User: Fold these one by one.
Assistant:
Number 1:
Amino acid sequence: MSPSTVSLYIRQPERVSEKTGKKIQTAIDGLGYVHNKIASQFTGGRSCNMAVVVPSLANIFFSHVIQRIESTVSERGFQLSIASHDHSLDKEEEQIRAILQWSPAVIAIAGADHKPSTLKMLHNSGVPVVQMWQVNGGDFAAQVGNNHEHIGYSAARYLLDTGCAQLAYFTTRFDDDIRARVRYEGFCRALEEEGKRALLVDIPRSENIWQASRETLVKTLVKERGIDGIFCTSDAIATALLMEAQDRGISIPGQLSVLGYGDFPSSAWLSPISLSSVNLNADVIATRTADMMLKMTQDASYQGEIVDVGFEIMPRGSTRLPF
C-alpha cells in the first residue's frame, strides 16, 4: 500500500475504498498512530482548528452556545479550542496571542470591547474573526448577537408597564462585566424618560452567588423600602432573589417583581413561582456563529455580516402582566 494512499485516507477517508480504508485503520489502531495536523498545515493543508474566547464558562448561557458551536464545526472536521478570561481584557489579550500562534482557521470572541493591542493583533494576523453576543458596536464586520442597550431599555420599560414604580438593577462584578454595563445604560434611559432613577445594586463577588444574592436583597430592601421591581443580570441571581423573597413572606409579584436575564432551562419550571426572563435566542446565536465561521474557511472573500438575533421577554409568575 502506497504512502500516498495512507495519506489520502487520513486526510479524506471518504475518497478511499472501504476495503483499503479498513486495512489502513487497523494498522493505525495497532500502532497507536496520531495524525500531526500541525505538520499538515506546513505542507499546504488548511488549519483544522477554530477557537472561541469567552468571559466565563460558569455561565450556562455561554457554555450552551459553545457546546452547540462545537457540535456543528466538529461535524465538518474542525477542532474547537476554548478559552475563558473571567472578564479580564488583559487575560483575553494573552489568550488570543497564544491562540494565534497556532494559526486557527477562524476565531470567535465575545463582545465589542477589547484592548487596542488585542484588536491590532487580530487585524494583523489575517485570521477571520466573528464577534459574538453583541452587535451594537465593535471593530469587526462579522457580528452575531444582541443589542444590549436595547435589552436594558426594554426590561425597564416592561417593569414600568406592569405597574412597578421604583426599579433596581441587580448585578455582580459590574466594573468587569462590560455588557451588563451597556444594559444598565439602556435601563437608565428608560427610567429617565419617566423622570425616575435606577438603583444600581452590585452584589459582592462571591463563589456562592446564591448566598450573596439573597443576603444583598435583604440589605437592599431594608435601605430602599420602595423598591418594587428588579432586573437581574442573570437568572441565577434572579432565582436566588425569588428564594429569599418567598422565605421572608414577600409577595411575588404583588409586592416585588423580579425579571431575570438569559432564560435558563430551569426558569420556566421553578415552583411555586416561575421566573420571568429575557430570552436571548441562544440557539440562533450558536447556529449563525458556527455557520459564519465555517463559511469563512470556505470563501476567503467572505467578511461576514451583522446578525441581530433579537430577544424576547418571557412573562411568567415573577412579574405582573403589562397593563
Number 2:
Amino acid sequence: MIKLTNRTRDLMDRPMDRTMDLMNRTRDLGDRTRDILSRARYKNEKLAYIYLTDRSRSLAQDLIKLSSDRNLDSELLYFKDFKKSIDRYFNDFDYLVFIMASGIAIRTIAPFIRDKFTDPAVIVMDELGINVISILGGHMAGANEMTAYIANKIGGNPVITTATDINDKGAFDLLVKKLGANVDNIRELSLKYNSSILKGQGPYIYIDPDLRDLVIGIDGWEKSIRGFKNIDDRVIDLNYEINNNSQDESKTNYGIIVISDKLDINKTEFAYLFDIQDSKCEIIRLVPRINVLGIGCRKNTASQVLDMAINTYLEGQNIDVKSIDMVGSIDLKRHERAILDFCDKESVKSEFFASDQLVDYEDLYERSDFVKKVTGVSSVAEPSCHILCEGNLIGKKYKKDGITLSLGRYKRWNR
C-alpha cells in the first residue's frame, strides 16, 4: 500500500479545487449574464386603460394589479385627459384599452387610425368586465392575444372576430409578428396567404435547421402555424410534393415560407429543397431577429465605414443583416455616431455595458492591452456579445481597421 503524505494529498486536491472554483465562477457568470440580459433585451410594453366612470376606473385598477405577471407599463387615464393628448398615446403606446361603450371609443379614435401595421392595439370592454372586444390590430399589434389575456384575468368573454382566429388557424401576419421577422410586401402576402389558409390551401413552411429548436420553442408556435404545411429535410422531392398536391387550377396562391437568418439560401445545405420547377410557386423568406452583434471601434469611426464592415462581416458568415436584433458595446460608446446610425438604419436595439460588467468575461476571449488602456477592459466586442446571447457566439470574430465585431445568436426565444 502506498502511503500518502499530507503534501501529496494537498497537491492532488489542488486540481479538483481549481475545477470547482471554475465551475462555481462559470455558474455565477451565467446567473449574472441572464440578469443583465433580462434588462438589456426586453422593454416593457406600454398599456393605457381609459375610463369614464368610477366603476370602470375600479376595474382598471384591478387589472393593473392582476397583470403583475407581465412586463407592462400600465397607465390609468380619465377619458377627457386622454382626448387632450390622443395623438401622443396613439404614437407612444402599444395597447389602448377603453372601458366604455364601443361607439364612444371608435368615434374618438377614428380620425387617428392610419394603418394596421403601425397603429396600436385597441381593445374595448364594458365596466363590468363581461365582454372584452378586440377592435384594432388583432395580429400585428397583439390585440387578440391581449384580449384573451385580459378576459382570462377577470373571467370575461373574449370577443375576437378575426377569421383565422375563429377558425382556429394560424395567419401569415401573426407568424411574422411571432418571429419578429423582416419581410417585404407584408400587406399583400398577408391577404394572399391568410385567404389560402382559410381555404385549406395554406403555404408550405420550412425552418432552417440551425434555428429549428429555437423557433419551435416559441410560446404558442404550434397554434401560429395551423393551416400551414410543415416540411423538413425528410422531403426528398418537393417538386413532386407540390405538383401532387396542386393539380387543382384554382390553387394558385401557394408557396414556400422559409424561416432562416441566412443571406443566401442557395449557399446552404438545404438549398436543394427549393429548386422548384413551377412558376406558380413563390418562395418567401422570413428573417427572424435572433442574432446579436458585439461592437468595438475607434472613437469617431465613420458611419459608412462601420456599416460596410458589418455587412462585409455578415456576408462572410452568410448571415442577413435583417436578423440582427440588438448590438452591444461598452458604455463609452453610448454616443458613438457610427453605432447609433447603424441601429437607426436597421431598426436595431442597442445596449451599452459598464466596464465592470464586461470584465467578468474578458478572460474568455482575446485580450488587448491597448483596449485595456483606453476602456479599462481588455476586450469589448466579444464580452458584449457574450452577455446579449448568453455565451452563444457563432462564427469567427472580425478585426480590421480599428473595428472589432462578434456575432451571436439568442439561446432562448423571449421577445
